[in-house]
Amino acid sequence: MQPSANSSKSHMGRNVAIVVVLLAFFFLVPVFPYTFASASFLGVSAQATGSVSLSYPVFHCGMVVNVQASASFQGFSASQSKTNPGWVCGRNG
Q: What is the pTM of this model?
């Protein structure tokens, strides 16, 4: 018994839908914690972190949210939250 043309079309539509959902997840869902910069000099340490989509570490293009910068020196610390930049392409996000 051979598959009919209708069953192969339905599989193709399902496969295309799966690929579209996976690509949307890869580029648009920020689920990956990421450190943009981290430095320490003469007792001062600073770090910038945020949540990014899986595409950002690979292509430096994707969704970026919850960006926070923090610094500390001899027990004193400061932190600043940046507004959520959203879609960012390039290293200068």
A: 0.69
